[in-house]
Amino acid sequence: MAMTASLGINAQKTNKVPTEAEMGAYVMVYHKDADHSLHMALSYDSYTWTSLNDDKPVIAGDTIAMQYGIRDPHIFRGPDGGFYLAMTDLHIFGSNAAAASEGHQNTKVYRTTQWERDGAAYGWGNNRGLVMMKSFDLIHWTRTNLDFSKLTCSTGVTDMHGTPIPWSEVGCVWAPETVYDYEARHLLVHFTTRMKNGTEMIYYIYMNDDFTQMLSEPKLLFEAPLGKNGVPAYTVIDSDIIKVGDTYHLFYVSHEHTATVKHATSKNITGPYVMDDKYDDGEKQGHEAPNCWKRLSIHTDGKDTYVVMFDNYSRRPHNFGFVETQDFQTFKMIGYFDQEGSPMKRTNFSEQKHAAVAPLTVKEAKALEKYWAKKKKN
User: Fold this and answer.
1) Is residue 33 classed exposed, middle or buried when 0-12, 13-18 and 19+ CB atoms within 10 A define those classes?
2) Do 287 and 280 meet the contact criterion of CB atoms below 8 Å apart?
3) pTM across the whole model
4) What fold, for 23-90+127-377?
5) How would you list the strands of the sheet with 2-7, edge to edge?
6) 3-state secondary structure (DSSP) of residue 123
7) Domain ranges of the chain
8) How deeply is 227 buried, as exposed, middle or buried, from its count of CB atoms within 10 A (0-12, 13-18, 19+)?
9) Tens digits of residue pLDDT in 361-377
10) SS3 of residue 370 by DSSP
11) Dihedral sign of CA atoms 273, 325, 363, 16 in order
């Protein structure tokens, strides 16, 4: 089920977790359709972002993923000071046919079929697993590949005849994100999944501190309301969870109509979550991949300010949108990257997709800059 490897030297340890007052920078992880690899960008003010390695990959997807490409990277700083990186193991342009159908130039062919398995049976972008990585410096990593099709536990899903569908028939495992469950005292990873070519919903698992083994069977976290046939009326994907005070805020994408970011809340990390019908981020075109992160107090005059960042895949050129909130009841749209009047700026990158942000100390950010500047010279 899991394959573990190491990139560089990274002994498992525990680091002191910086307080918010000790942090003054941010790291953003994202992928690009052009290379299906991991990219990173830094910011020292939470508004202006600069990509490391001149927007070339910091980790090549074909070196870490079973499908030779990654998507949907998420970064989380754990209570041990470690950085947890979770990614979808999927290359949507793994064949020439797939690249041609999307209008992209694919220079490497990793399979002869458009998808890893039959698209009619398993659906668009079908895959089997996730790439899980851990680091204490964002440079040296350990890696584990999780293959959900090897699980023998129940999925809890049946076909139209009432026959249980096993995990060997999983249709997708997408968009993993990591949070910490302080009651269970374990890392919780939630992700989008479906059985065969069915309806996407959100599941979760617990992981060990090394990020190398599942500690629990996958369980349902969130799904759309059930229709008359007893199955979810529409798909929900791309979950993001942040705890503020004693409330867990779940941002997700609803496909009830056009793909739209929605908001729900719960007092428990695993739910049940109550949908917030009043949430509106102002984006009218299809968008996805929400990530909610906190601006450090040093950049907000001490006010608790949160950003919901999302992927505007319907816009041309491709871009990200941003809204701010201080109470999770009112949300103010502050525009898109590089839009006139928006504070959000990119200095050296574009076409980024499905990103996530985590806080850093200035020292950590400078160390990353120095490392990649040296790599460039060599």
Assistant:
1) middle
2) no
3) 0.95
4) Tachylectin-2; Chain A (2.115.10)
5) 2-7, 141-147, 129-135, 83-89, 70-77
6) coil
7) 23-90+127-377
8) exposed
9) 999 999 999 999 998 77
10) helix
11) negative
